[in-house]
Write a structure and sequence with these properties.
With 351 residues, this protein is α/β, with parallel strands linked by helices. The protein has 2 domains: 78 residues, no CATH class; 227 residues, Rossmann fold, CATH 3.40.50.720. Helix content is 45%, strand content 13%. The chain has 14 helices and 8 strands. Helix 1 packs antiparallel against helix 2. The chain starts with a helix and ends in a 23-residue tail after the last strand.
């Protein structure tokens, strides 16, 4: 029917020209009235036949269109008069003070964290080993997230060469013990914490200390030290978030053989031929910020139960080419430390 096509073309023209809806509607109504008048005046004429239909059909079509437009207008008025239901006040847990509710408000609105997750963070006991490149962003984000009890162990002092990447320290803190300086920065960021600095190394003999924590996070740069910490964590049955960096690359994983994952010795049973620290190999300054922040994120996920952690997986990051990938890991049944099973599962790499 030519008449219907004319109406459709007029609607399209109004949309293309971005005419107001009232103007387009007026044009369509005028066309409809002209077609109806043509059928009433000359119902059998050639013009009426080319337009198509008859007067009764065009009247029914007009009535139907009027009903649809009337219904839409009525619905719009009802919506404009509707009153939104009042939202309940945000009170996630009576254990959080008003200041804590405001401080952690961005956590509290996440359904994966919420009030229960924030209370888990508040009650968690975390041992951070190393306040250097990885420890700097890690400590700041754990403090900001509200992890309630943090033990920070480091036997080193702040030097000028640290400040290129260890952003928790300032120039006027040179010579200060890193553990004390970092603990002070954490408490200035969030006073609702309990931070215990230890100016010493953590060794295999610290099993009892480790057993008093829910999670250990380690970011030192000595293979021998890492291996000793791994053995102590395995003996205590405490999960270990492990991060490493060098030059432009970094890795993060979770060692947890007590819950089915591998330990460090499953993946790295022997020390590398050349265990060069960052002072010798070099490291780009922003890389510890990336890897340390990922370690903090994985710690928060582990403590709150949010998402999927890195147990049985290792994240590899290449800062020079802006690439990252995930590889699967597994326990080694012949591992001398955990008796689990190892290593990189074949064909498990994925972007």
């Amino acid at each position: 029917m030519l008449g219907l096509w004319l109406i459709v073309l007029m609607l399209i023209l109004g949309r293309v020209l971005r005419l107001p809806w009232t103007v387009t509607l007026g044009m369509v109504c005028a066309l409809w009235l002209g077609i109806l008048a043509l059928h009433l005046v000359a119902p059998g004429g050639a013009a009426a036949e080319s337009i198509g239909g008859n007067a009764a059909g065009w009247l029914v079509l007009g009535a139907f269109a009027a009903l649809v437009l009337g219904y839409r207008r009525l619905l719009g008025r009802l919506r404009s008069r509707a009153v939104a239901a009042p939202q309940p006040a945000l009170r996630p847990d009576p254990g959080l003070s008003e200041a804590e509710i405001e401080r952690y408000s961005r956590h509290l609105v996440l359904h994966q964290v919420g009030g229960p997750g924030q209370m888990q963070l508040r009650g968690a006991r975390v041992l951070v080993i190393g306040a250097g490149g990885l420890g700097s962003p890690l400590c700041l984000y754990l403090a900001a997230a509200g992890v309630g009890h943090i033990t920070l162990a480091d036997d080193d002092t702040v030097t000028l060469s640290n400040l290129q990447r260890q952003v928790i320290f300032r120039d006027d803190l040179r010579g200060e013990p890193k553990a004390y300086a970092a603990a002070e920065a954490m408490l200035k960021l969030n006073p609702h914490l309990d931070v215990t600095p230890l100016i010493r190394r953590i060794t295999e003999a610290d099993t009892d200390l480790i057993a008093g924590h829910d999670l250990v996070i380690e970011g030192t740069d000595s293979f021998a030290g890492r291996a000793a910490i791994n053995r102590a964590c395995v003996a205590a049955g405490v999960p270990l978030i492990w991060g490493a960096i060098g030059q432009w690359e970094g890795q993060v994983t979770l060692f947890d053989p007590a819950r089915g994952g591998p330990c460090m010795a499953c993946l790295f049973p022997q020390a590398p031929e050349r265990d060069a620290p960052c002072a010798e190999a070099g490291v780009i300054g922003a890389l510890p910020g990336v890897i340390g922040s990922i370690m903090a994120l994985e710690a928060i996920k582990h403590l709150t139960g949010a998402g999927q952690g890195l147990r049985g997986r290792m994240m590899l990051f290449d800062g020079l080419y802006g690439e990252s990938r995930m590889i699967s890991t597994a326990r080694n049944p012949d591992c001398p430390v955990c008796g689990g099973k190892s290593a990189l599962a074949p064909g498990a790499a994925r972007s």
